[in-house]
Amino acid sequence: MPRFSYQAKDADGKLLTDFIDAVDEGSASTELSNRGLWVVELQEISDKAPLDTEINFFSGVSASDLNSFLIQLSIMIKCGVSLAEALQSLENGEENSAFKKVLFDIRTQVAAGRGFSEALSTHPEVFDKFFLAMIKVGETGGILEEVLKKLASTSKRRIALKNQIIGSLAYPALLFTVAGIVLSVLMFFAVPKFAELFAKANLPLPVTTRILISISQILTQYTWQCVGGTIFTIVFLVILLLTTEGQKLAGEICLRLPVLKQVVQRYFVVQISEPMGLLLGAGVPLRELLLAIENTIEMDTARSVVSNMRESIEHGSSLKQALDGNPIFPNMAIKLVETGEKSGSLDQMFTEIAEYYDDQLQSALKSALSLLEPFLIFFMALLVGFIMLSVFLPLFQMSFIRPK
């Protein structure tokens, strides 16, 4: 069922921002009217939004561009500069032509009276769902400066995380490339020569040798088909991982792998806890906050955790009860949530959880990446060992054959 975001005023004239599930826009408007609300804005949330990554690869806007924009905008707003003037200044100083056009469009919309979050939402290729939800809640709650600073911090951490992953994968990638070249030379040139030699000797070949020769024959006879298939598979996987559905699938798979499970868990604990701590401290209602966070998470498992939290609040239960037995939040985090609920310091507890598990995320990622290199070395050793065994066993047999 489609989901709609709306802004509506209640009987007291208070502006409410929330989400509603309905068959169509008319049904959503009727339902809100039945609740005694006057609809100000109603917009369907598309499930076919562009890539839910920190920055769309094809947008022309890098993570560094966005991080710089957030830092400068938060400073200007803190100094009392109006939003329109700040956007004008940032547009004039922007060197990236693609981002400059985006800023021009956003500034034009803001100057025309459109809301900042609404203007940003017209560029989903640059600003993802998490970004838009945070800005919208911050704008509504009057804490835009704090939200921008937190988003800048989050963006900076994402860049550092991305650089860490790229740096850690550099050596394994080089190792894999070199090994691939060596194996290709063996399969295309060395193995066929040995196959001719074994055929002349008329020896009964071991199973491993027959398998190796068969693979070599397939590769030499269908070289271009194999190369094309490999390239197609790599491109397909890359494009798949750039889509929302691909990322959801990858997240679900990683959540079930022992080594990567902790990385995924800690990532979502931070993604959920960080805005909870910030916005609860600013007085944003818990239910409204949970709805906003729920809408930014694509992976079904993590989204169900936030959904359970929201439903628990709606039914008058505690967050601790909603988190019991969940696949994302560890027991320590649940205990802190329970303590925060009892002491009335839930915002502080979520902030502590986000900071602690952000450090844990770095450690878990480092541990996962440190296992990649020895795994690749072990895999290559097995592969080379298989080839060498397949080649040398027949050679040993030939050495014991006496000429007649």
Q: Can you offer a commentary on this structure?
A:
The chain has 404 residues and is mostly helical. Helix content is 73%, strand content 5%. Among the domains are: 1-45; 168-404, Type II secretion system (T2SS), domain F (Receptor-associated Protein). It has 16 helices and 3 strands. The chain has a 3-stranded antiparallel beta sheet with strand order 2-1-3. The radius of gyration is 28 Å and the shape is elongated.
Order of strands across the main sheet: 2-1-3
Q: SSE order, as H and E?
A: EEHEHHHHHHHHHHHHHHH
CATH arch. level architecture of the domain at 168-404: Up-down Bundle
For the termini, the CA-CA separation is: 82 Å
User: Could you describe the largest sheet, including whether it forms a barrel?
Assistant: 3 strands, antiparallel
Strand coverage percent:
5-15%
Q: Mean of the pLDDT scores?
A: 82
**Unreliable residue stretches:** 46-58
Oligomer: single chain
> What's the CATH superfamily of the domain at 168-404, by name?
Type II secretion system (T2SS), domain F
Quick one: how many beta strands? 3
Please give the count of helices.
16
Per the CATH scheme, the topology name of the domain at 168-404 is: Receptor-associated Protein
The secondary-structure class comes to mainly alpha
